[in-house]
Amino acid sequence: MNKSVSIIIDNYNYQDYVAAAIESALSQTYQHCEIIVVDDGSTDNSQDVIRSFGSKIQAIFKRNGGQASAFNAGFSASTGDIVCFLDSDDLFLPTKVSRVVEILEQSSRQWCFHHLRWVDRALAPVEMPTNRFSTGDYDLRDEVRRGGSSLTPPATSGLAFTRNLLEKLMPIPETVRITADNYLKLPALLLAPGYYTSEQLALQRLHPSNFYTRSKGSTNRANVELSVACGLDSKFPGLRVHCNRMFVSGVALSLLGDKVAPEVADQRNAYFASRTPAEKVSMATKVAYRVMKGIGRRVAGRG
User: Fold this and answer.
1) Measured at the alpha carbon of residue 7, what is the angle toward residues 170 and 97, in degrees to the nearest 5?
2) How many other CB atoms are there within 10 angstroms of residue 265's CB atom?
3) Is the omega angle on the peptide bond into residue 208 within 30 degrees of 0, that is, cis?
4) CA nearest 57: which of 104, 24, 102, 95?
5) How far apart are the C-alpha atoms of 161 and 127, rounded to whole Å?
6) Closest CA to 206 of 280, 129, 124
7) Alpha-carbon distance 57 to 254, whole Å?
8) Regarding beta strands 82-87 and 136-138, do their DSSP bridges make them parallel or antiparallel, or are they unpaired?
9) Which of 39, 93, 143, 217 sees the fewest Cβ atoms within 10 Å?
10) Measured between alpha carbons, how far is residue 202 from residues 16, 19, 90, 107, 114 in Å?
11) How many CB atoms lie within 10 A of CB 39?
């Protein structure tokens, strides 16, 4: 195994966690790794923590622009044949990169996704849903094009891609401020076969500052759904069914109270205008149903 690997760590105001994330990257049993840490304009002590690692890592300090912009900056600076992403509040287990390289040695595989182990801020185990996906090769290109997918990819720290594939996915539109990993997953499944393993090769911390993983009430969800849907639709026509579904979700959430950034609102309007008359009717009907369902749940909750 002589492939080079880039580990991209994105950080914003995680001074209490970022050192552990970097240490986990430095502690990999696989030797051919470069570690790129992108700080997205932190206002806490993160930058001093990152600087303390000196030449062991490549540090990028940029103005705050959101997670997509951090991913883009990290990828632009990277050189690895394989790219792994690591959120700065998570940790890789020592053999993670070695296992990913072993899996991607087979040339037909262009991505490797793996299960994550949920832990709390002190790394104690947290109860998590049972994994329902089988270890093995997946070629979901036709399935995804039809609007389905029999695999739900993990969060950021469980994602690895060949450079050849990632060059087709990047850059990510920078209106995607958080959960930029959502932009990478579906097009990866659309464009190439890969491999999923149920091995838990990384720890995903759950704590109050990263509520998105389990929260259904985040006021960021409309922005995420709409910005990802609009960005993917403009670049990957094969994802049209998926994008319409995300768009419906985003519009419904915005009508139920989620705030939408002005630039995302402009994209939303242009997206809807570009649909066929039949799509518009179908999407409007689904939005109305979701809104009525959401209102019903709120009324029931007050009862």
Assistant:
1) 120
2) 15
3) no
4) 24
5) 28
6) 124
7) 41
8) unpaired
9) 217
10) 18, 16, 7, 24, 8
11) 25
pLDDT at residue 176 greater than cutoff 50: yes
- Structural tokens at position 43: 């206002």
For the cut 50, the answer to whether the pLDDT of residue 191 exceeds it is yes
pLDDT at residue 156, rounded to an integer: 97
Tokens of 48: 């001093």
Does position 219 have pLDDT exceeding 90, yes or no?
no
